[in-house]
Amino acid sequence: MTLKLIAINAYAKKHIKNNPGDKIHDVKETVKDAVKRQKDGASCAVCGQPIWALGSAFSGFDGCFTCITGESDDSADYEVY
Ligand SMILES: [Zn+2]
Question: By three-state DSSP, how is residue 72 classified?
Answer without folding.
Answer: coil
